[in-house]
Design brief:
It comes from Tilletia walkeri. It holds the Pfam family RT_RNaseH. Residues 51-110 form the Tf2-1-like SH3-like domain. Residues 218-278 form the Reverse transcriptase RNase H-like domain. By secondary structure, this protein is an alpha+beta fold. Among the domains are: 53-111, no CATH class; 192-219, no CATH class; 226-340, Nucleotidyltransferase, domain 5 (2-Layer Sandwich). Helix content is 28%, strand content 15%. The protein contains nine helices and eleven strands. The strands form four sheets. It has a five-stranded antiparallel β-sheet, with no helix packed on it. It has a two-stranded antiparallel sheet with strand order 6-7. Strand 6 (209-213) and strand 7 form a beta hairpin. Helix 5 runs parallel beside helix 8 (288-297). The longest helix has 32 residues, at 9-40. The chain is elongated, with a radius of gyration of 38 Å. The chain starts with 8 loop residues before the first helix and ends with a strand.
Length: 344
């Protein structure tokens, strides 16, 4: 029954339609905003038509046998479009040796540019030079000079054959650079006599040494210039001491391989069996850990010399291994760190 505060059925129906219309408008505005955000991150579908030339992206549509090496092109084609099946799929006119299905998604294709190729002349010249690889070999005279018909004589001063010929400029050799880990350090080279060098660097010593360099007395003192350290992995924590020492040597040699390969290296260790573990030829087989480290170090064994130094005297390495390092949240402690001349 109708009473005060409640309208008629027509009034209530009109109010419901009005609220429903507001809901539709709010929903349409939200969908338009979502579509705008979606379209801003994605490209529109390419509009292909029959006869257009397209390339097949091998990263999205692998073709067996197309990628024979790392230097080959990552696209195959171009091939013409035989039929447009839908805005999302097309059928290509492929040669029979490919033996793949001719239907492709437009996301797997790249349209061949219709603009003028700015490098067309360079490509045509490269193809011409490649096709002209079969050249006539000029006869060689008795004095070793090359004779060619119709060519101007060589100028002994400039080495050119005439005004029409030009010398191809050769690319200059790249200047040698230091390894990346030594780019920010001041380096210098010095030379001493072989006997003095052997006396100075043959055996470790913590005391100063005086060397005669070009008639001048130079005092040299052994000190660490590089320090490498990292935490042990859960697997390495369960290793026995010989395995852990050998793993440490193999890891450190790999980190400094750009400095140590091909030069005499003296390994000073407080673990005396370390050298004999690499040179042993006994019938007892080693475990996989030692075998792997031996495989890394055996090619450089002729340049390695092991010197045993008791732990109570090996204070420089022990002191460095107990340094308090800064926490670097961007690098895992298992990956290792290094200190060169006091700089991280």
């Amino acid at each position: 029954p109708e009473h005060d505060g409640v309208g008629t059925f027509d009034e209530r129906l009109a109010a419901a339609k009005e609220r429903l219309g507001e809901a539709y408008e709010t929903l349409a505005a939200a969908r338009a905003l979502q579509k705008q955000r979606y379209d801003s991150r994605r490209r529109p579908l390419p509009s292909f038509k029959a006869g257009d030339m397209v390339w097949i992206r091998l990263s999205d549509r692998p073709v067996p046998g197309a990628l024979s090496s790392k230097l080959v092109a990552r696209k195959l084609g171009p091939y013409p479009i035989a039929e447009v099946l839908s805005p999302h799929r097309v059928r290509l006119a492929l040669p029979s040796p490919l033996r793949i299905h001719a239907e492709f998604s437009v996301e797997q294709l790249d349209a061949m540019p219709q603009d003028v190729d700015p490098f067309a002349s360079v490509r045509e010249r490269a193809v011409t030079l490649h096709q002209a690889g079969e050249r006539e070999v000029a006869p060689v005279a008795d004095d070793g000079s090359v004779e060619s018909e119709g060519s101007a004589p060589l100028d002994p001063a400039t080495g050119s054959g005439g005004e029409d010929t030009h010398e191809v400029a050769r690319r200059s050799r790249r200047a040698p650079q230091l390894p990346h880990s030594l780019r920010n350090f001041e380096t210098q080279s010095f030379s001493v006599s072989s006997s003095a060098s052997d006396d100075v660097f043959a055996s470790p010593s913590s005391g100063p040494r005086v060397v005669d360099v070009d008639g001048h007395k130079v005092t040299m003192m052994e000190r660490p210039v590089a320090f490498l350290s990292r935490l042990t992995t859960p697997t390495e924590k369960r290793m026995v001491t010989p395995e852990l020492e050998l793993c440490c040597l193999a890891w450190a040699f790999g980190r400094l391989a750009h400095l140590l390969e091909g030069v005499p290296v003296t390994v000073i260790t407080d673990h005396s069996p370390l050298g004999r573990m690499l040179t042993s030829v006994g019938p007892i087989p080693y475990g996989p850990t030692i075998s792997k480290c031996r495989a890394i170090l055996m090619p450089h064994l002729e340049n390695l010399r092991f010197v045993h130094k008791p732990g109570r005297k090996h204070t420089n390495a022990d002191a460095l291994s107990r340094l308090v390092v800064r926490q670097d949240p961007g690098r895992s402690a298992l990956e290792g760190g290094d200190v060169l001349d006091g700089v991280d």
